[in-house]
Amino acid sequence: MSGKAAIVGGGVIGGGWAARFLLNGWDVAVFDPDPQAERKLGEVLENARRSLPGLGDVALPSEGQLRFCASLAEAVDGADWVQESVPERLELKHRVLAELAGHVRADTVIGSSTSGFKPSELQEGQALAGQIVVAHPFNPVYLLPLVEIVGSPANDPAFIEDACARLTALGMKPLHIRAEIDAHIADRLLEAVWREALWLVRDGIATTEEIDDAIRFGFGLRWAQMGLFETYRIAGGEAGMRHFISQFGPCLQWPWTKLMDVPELTDDLIERIAGQSDAQSGTHSIRELERIRDGNLVGMMRALALNDWGAGALQNAHDAARAQAAGLVDHVGALSDPSLPVLTLTRAVPLDWIDYNGHMTEARYLDAFAQATDRLMRMVGCDDSYIAEGGSFFTVETHIRHLDEVRAGAPITVHTRVLEGAGKKMHLWHEMQSDGRLLATGEHMLLHVDLATRRASPPAPQVAGALERLAAAHAALPLPEGAGRGVGAPR
Ligand SMILES: NC(=O)C1=CN([C@@H]2O[C@H](COP(=O)(O)OP(=O)(O)OC[C@H]3O[C@@H](n4cnc5c(N)ncnc54)[C@H](O)[C@@H]3O)[C@@H](O)[C@H]2O)C=CC1
Ligand SMILES: C[N+](C)(C)CC(=O)CC(=O)[O-]
Predict the structure, then answer these.
(1) Kind and range of the H or E element at 441?
(2) 276 and 396 housed in the same domain
(3) pTM for this prediction
(4) Residue whose CA is closest, atom 2 of ligand 2?
(5) Is 426 a domain residue?
(6) pLDDT for 259-313, tens place per residue?
(7) Residue located nearest, by CA, to atom 23 of ligand 1
(8) How open is the CA angle 426-430-434, to the nearest 5 degrees?
């Protein structure tokens, strides 16, 4: 599902939305009167291109077209989705939303990035009230999946459902909030923590860095994968949540926190916070900090994907939904031309595959080829249920030639030939390319095994048959250059 998005306000958040849409194949038109908007958005987009395409294990669609427009009307013309991301001032948002009337279709979703306003506040007096919803994202919008979707009685539930489906297709996690409240869910929580942190600095208890350490070395890591309630359930020991509440519930009555009090943001306090923040992080530019943050986020979300958990499980589901559109098939019977090498991997190089030389590290060539082998196994019928019944393939020999380098975010494909598929043997030839350049070849010998005895055994007839047919179809192709070669420089 792609389309045309209009971004109204291309600052920190509008820029992130633009990147999310563009890298998922949408055309994007931006309206922002700031003369620096194009430069700033370009820098955000550059960071996004490094990090988002490699987040999942399946290639994203080709990038859409980006356009900067001189007027709001020009930007939103023909848009399927308009995302308002102007500064958090209600009168400004009202003005911008009112200007959309007459310029957008009746089915265009008008999302507002507002961190705090309720949808009914945004919709007040608006001709297009029924099309306006809160779509509150999290920075960086191109990597973090959460979007809080909040509507009001003015919105048709089917309209909200459709908006959520479009966000899901962008790899996002729309969280539909049933009741409208100031600051939705997440910012209500974040503001409570932010207020307490300001008190801690104001009272001289902790520096900005010490507070950040208290989060990032401890509960922040827990929150990223289990949130609050699941974490506390475990903290209650075997008796779970009930014991946790009976032990720590009474503390809520003690004045552990400042609750609703807000410290006065005096010049002195602002200087103290900003000065400590400079001392803590001032050696990095904001763009550098963004790149460090993005690398960490990609690493964490890819680790969660290995456990099929939380944000990682969402990414896996997105990959599975994208696989067919990316040209990957699950069974040899679905190949349009079985006589050609089979597309077994199409993805971008993730940030966590990059080494100190600034390119994809050697071990990841094997990782990519292993993913390609896994898909070929699935295609011949050696899938999860076959493996659960006790049959599989083990790799017994591998020869990889590293022919060219590739950088973070670059697209890579692997095409695979079956050089031999007979009896217990599966002899594969993988070729990895990026934009027409041959990056590597991988030659792999696998043997079918009985997982009960851990010894070589013939595959089940349906697997043997599919493999033999593919090997026969590939036999007409000329032998690939380098196949069967030993290790060493060519003489
Ligand atoms: N910065 C953050 O962490 C987050 C912000 N938000 C929300 O996103 C919205 C935007 O915030 P930021 O991107 O942080 O602000 P920002 O200041 O970085 O960007 C706002 C952009 O809007 C442009 N603008 C001002 N008037 C405009 C108009 N009439 N038409 C078009 N563009 C106009 C400005 O030139 C600027 O580039 C706010 O509602 C904010 O609450 C939501 C999630 C996180
Ligand atoms: C600070 N903030 C209220 C603008 C933050 C958000 O709205 C969400 C985020 O990205 O933390």
Answers:
(1) strand 437-450
(2) no
(3) 0.93
(4) 115
(5) yes
(6) 668 889 999 999 999 999 999 999 999 999 999 999 999 999 999 999 999 999 9
(7) 9
(8) 165
